[in-house]
Batch of 2 targets.
Target 1
Amino acid sequence: MEERTTLEKSLKPHWVWAIALGSSIGWGAFVQPTNWMADAGPLGVIIGFGIGALLMMLIAVSYGFLIKSFPVSGGEFAYAFISLGRKHAFISGWFLTLGYICIVALNASAFALMLKFVFPAVIEQIPLYQIAGWDVYGMEVIVASAALGIFGYFNIRGTGLSGQMQFVFCTIMIISIVVITFMVGGHPGAGLENVQPYFPKDTTAFAAIISIVAIAPWAFVGFDNVPQAAEEFHFSSKKAFTLIILAISIAAVLYSMMIIATAMTQPWQQTVGEGQVWGTAATIQETIGTIGLVLLVTALTMGVFTGLNGFIISSSRLLFAMSRAKILPEAFSKLHPKYNTPHVGIIFTVVVSMFAPWFGREALLWVVDMSSVGVTIAYFYTCYTAFSLFKIKKGEDFNPSKHVVSPMKKSIAAAGMIASLAFLALLLIPGSPAFLGIQSRIALIAWIGLGVIFYMAKRKEFNKIPKEELNYLILGSKKIIAKNRS
């Protein structure tokens, strides 16, 4: 049996917390408040994100248990393997790979979009063409590609460096959001009276709240980056659950603060009705001046940078784990000779993401919407695996090396499975508030088709690997932990 390649343990707890939080708070928190308020009103958005955060915490219980028990790169890929075998491991890994790379690409695109708003004369240079009504400029492509290249380089230089950067970016982002909220709240003419009415007049409070709950997997995606980095923890993996809960809680608070700050500037329905390209920036600048815009741009920049950094880490680790299990080419599990990082996966993620700005923002959003399905499927696999390992009592099939008696946690894992299926239903059932558009559904079908072709091509080779070897390669154990059904 060949020696298993492992990653260096260099991540500190506050860096991992920053990876989870920074990946959860991206461009949406700063660009989307007016769109969200138009659908749900200020209170509807805040309650919706609060409920979404609680549902994510239910799912996080399963993540915390599995990270503690199996601190290996691969996360949901490894968890699906533990409970359902190699075929499901491939399905989980395939969907997650797309989801992570799409989010990397979207963050790079969002950075170019922000600069386009602040410095339109600079970014709107070298006009190329139009896709789905979106004008694509050569300078946009250059800016997005440069951001990707820089963060790819930092990630190759070492996990410690990228972890430190993530914590600094997160700290600056939080400070900026807090200062914006208090400056708006203390400005004459602004205040909580502008937050009323709490819900839109043309919809029920329930429908408004559910429309926001439906996007929770997208809004909070990022806490699931923690298991991808588990192999590199320079601390006990028992702390992972606490770090995830802290990240989700603070993310919900930061989302709510941006909604309140935007709504307090003037009657929120007026802000929504103005139809500005970036309503939050326009109304905050009008209320507290250029300093407000500078703080918002700073917060957005940090949010984009933490998203870029966090998801480059996750996608490269997922590719590394799948390569180590011999599903992907061996190159992805080779480590950099100097920095001991999975550099091929990092370069691959960056290069693939560099294609995205050429297709325009609307086309990219179709793919990102579709990738929400993949992330939700990964949530389900994680909760199912935890559910299968928790036992109500010791029975005939109880194995003390992998099972834990905990009726409460088994119930929470079951609730996480139900929440995951509910999120999936909201994305796939026609008429639901989060139903995928036709373009996203086409992209989803295309990705599934590619996955089927790839799996069929690799199936024989993958299934020939002995059970003991696959357990060792994926989980670092030579014992037969997983069922390994093909």
Note: Strands lie at 127-131, 134-137, 390-391, 404-405.
Target 2
Amino acid sequence: MARDPRDFLLRLFSAAVDSADPAKAVARHLPDPPRGRVLVVGAGKSAAAMARAVEEAWPGVDLSGVVVTRYGHAVPTRRIEVIEAAHPVPDRNGAQAARRILDAVGGLGPEDLVLALISGGGSALMTAPVPGLTLDDKMRVNRLLLASGAPISVMNRVRRRLSAIKGGRLALAAAPARVVTLAISDVPGDDPLAIASGPTVHDPDAGADLSEVVRMLGPDLPEPARRLLLEAPEPLPAFGADYRLISTPMLALEAAAARARAEGATPLILGDAIEGEAAAAGQVMAGIARSAALHGQPVRGPAVLLSGGETTVTIGAAKPGRGGRNTEFLLAMALALDGTSIHALACDTDGIDGTEDAAGAIIAPDTLPRARAAGLDPAAVLAGHDSYSLFARLGDLVKTGPTLTNVNDFRAVYIP
């Protein structure tokens, strides 16, 4: 077994991220090249890396296209244009990219192929407001959603209602060309309609009642968005879809589990779809870890509890500090453990926890004593949503830079 729990947890995280490397996953799932043109489009934090993988796998195929990714996530490509835009709040580059993508897929024939490269972050990065809604309106809606604590499924339902490209509209714009989607999942349950809000997936829920969401977002919701969310839209025509999941959160957890076994620890995967408030999830995870350490249930050490999913952080009226859902999860967990001999890591596999420059952090039995010795009050820090600052002060942030993939959050709890 590894002597240093911190290094052990970091190796598990690396195994999870490596399993979702687009350079390895894309080529295995490509269709046969068509007789006609190949038009590559895409959106998400992995879109540029996926585009480069397509170029490398198909050196002799006549292809072109455009993809949009987050600032700092571009990689060199030769035939496919890469546009960078803002995430998680859209900007004008994202709106321009969406228009370019819709224009690119127009006028194709039945022998042509549209290869759609979709990954987490695509909802914000590929922004095409429906008629009657401005980009500024969509930006305001996104900020309200991010502060609301709404689960990602609710966020994406709102985004689909307000979009001219999501919820299958990209695939409809490409008809009669064949559309094949290669997707890296960053959502609990791997629902294709939820990954980047499903631009190539038929939305059977398009006419759902969103009045409760309107009430949740409150009086700051722009009036055009309020009206659109309350009106039932015309149903879109159904269509078939060739949708291929090439990397998922569960595959990443299984890769980390294999690495743990190789190093002499028993892995227990708790699930890839753990959601809810980050602080509450941290408290629950602490309870499971304490039971394992004290009673050998649900697993006896040396062991590691593995989980994925996407928690949320609800911001109240007070101005928050610097934080992220993974660092908030960890700080709440550390407070609940209160010195128990357990180490834990929680990181976003894209390398960016929320909007910060760290993937997440690591806690150890001495996290709280060191914080207090540094003059910090961990409970007050948690209440002020300033967890990033605490872990930065302690030197316990995990910084990877953009990983160019995204299979949601990764959590590993080591039981000695």
Note: The mean pLDDT is 93.
